[in-house]
Amino acid sequence: MKRRTLPLLAACAALALGAAVAPVAHAADAPGVAFVYLGNPGDAGWTFAHDQGSKQAEAKFGNKIKVTRVENVPESADSERVFRDLANKGNKIIFGSSFGYQDFELKVAKDFPDTVFLHATGYKKSKNFGTYDVRMYQGAYLAGIVAGHMTKTNTLGFVASVPIPEVVRNINAYTLGARSVNPKVHTKVIWINSWFDPGKEKQAAETLIGQGADVLLQNTDSSATLATAEQKKVHAFGWDSDMKKFGPNAALGSVVAHWGVYYMAAIQQVLDGKWKNDPVWWGLPQQAVDLEDLSPSVDAAARTDEKKAHDAIASGSRDVFTGPIKDQSGTVKVAAGKTLTDAELQRLNWYVEGVDGSLPK
Hints:
The protein folds into 2 domains: about 5-135 and about 260-285, Response regulator (Rossmann fold, 3-Layer(aba) Sandwich), CATH 3.40.50.2300; about 135-255 and about 295-345, Response regulator (Rossmann fold), CATH 3.40.50. It is about 40% helix and about 20% strand. It has 11 helices and 14 strands. It has helices at about 5-15, 45-60, 75-90, 100-110, 135-150, 165-180, 200-210, 225-230, 260-270, 300-315, 340-345, and strands at about 30-35, 65-70, 90-95, 115-120, 130-135, 155-160, 185-190, 215-220, 235-240, 250-255, 280, 290, 325, 330-335. Helix 5 (about 135-150) runs antiparallel to helix 10 (about 300-315).
């Protein structure tokens, strides 16, 4: 079910076919565009998705830009050195693709006022520093709808990375989606306190399966959760990219981020002198995220409910976090007819009803 993503896939395919072609001859004054990655594209997850987006932008602009990519940059003071080096080398647009870069990238931005710095998933801004994100929670909600139909134990599992609002949103959205079609569902969560640790991800998935979870989702960067589901003969979803090849029998679909949609738009705005530092948070309406490649094993009822929700969210007539929504204690946190604002979503620090366990302090 690769709705509305064929143009993106076609672009990626065209790029792959052109991989053996001689390097592009850039215009002498082509501005430098740099991407800083937390991991490497081989993770098949977060970094892979950003890398695909950067390649899509590179294919679109050709010799009008000069692209640099720096991999395996930790979320530490060392990232400041990387950002400063890229700015000193004359790059005019620098994308920092991980949450932990925010303060280091912002510090460098203040020293290079003629360079545009853009930061993924952050919340701060200055004259030449802006933030961008995709609403992965919308895809998690759709995955939850499918999971709510497909579970036989009414127990879902979630392998969580780091306890920040971004991840809490996805856990809650997954649970809300599932309980919208199956109120008996509960979600168990295991935190591994890392974005990328295949060993811990595998252990967490195995533990969740041992606790009765038969449909898993993760907010981590490797394919280990899906691969473990394949081994244990339960279901799971890919995250960030289409991970079906890592668990062809287990995969119910993948929540995919299309960062290229934003990268192409942002670069064009800078080239045109029209860039503004307003926060950007795109989702289904902008085709920046989707639930894709649904398995043939997903039944007709699940497909119908998922499509209805998909189309309503994409049109703006439905929001994942519209009330009534209760927390774990049964207290109404979002009243009927009310919707959490983006500011509230970015501070989310409580579990919805149906999530088991407590949120780490």
